[in-house]
Amino acid sequence: MTDYKITDVVTALRKITARNVPFDPREVQRELAEKFPQISRDQIRHAARKLADKLSEESRELEAEIKQTEELMRIEQMIMRQNAIRAKGEPR
């Protein structure tokens, strides 16, 4: 299977598993076999590993984004407190 076909399979896997239905590996395999009749179980496993790696990478990126957003929110709250104190004319 060429690289672009693995990408196609990964994309199909992502769409199949993104549905709001209980995950059934047999159903996934059946749908992939219909869409890619030439695909073997090993190729499906390979595509599933690539998808898992991609999802792990996306998850790490989102976690980093969340941490950065939380830090920015803490800084914003500190600034708002300081501004409120200054507005009241109270010493820091």
Would you kindly provide a written description of the structure presented here, covering whatever features stand out?
Helix content is 82%, strand content 0%. It is built from three helices and no strands. It starts with a helix and ends with a helix.
Concise synopsis of the structure shown:
The protein is mainly alpha-helical and 92 residues long.
Please report which band the strand proportion falls in: under 5%, 5-15%, 15-25%, 25-35%, 35-45% or over 45%: under 5%
Uncertain parts:
none
Helix content: over 70%
Q: What is the SS-derived class?
A: mainly alpha
Overall mean pLDDT score?
Answer: 85
* Element-level helix/strand string: HHH
Biggest sheet, open or closed, and with what strands and sense? none
Q: Please report the total strand number as a whole number.
A: 0
How far apart lie the N and C ends? 67 Å
Spatial shape: rod-shaped
Helix count, DSSP H or I runs of 4 or more residues? 3
* Radius of gyration (Å): 24 Å
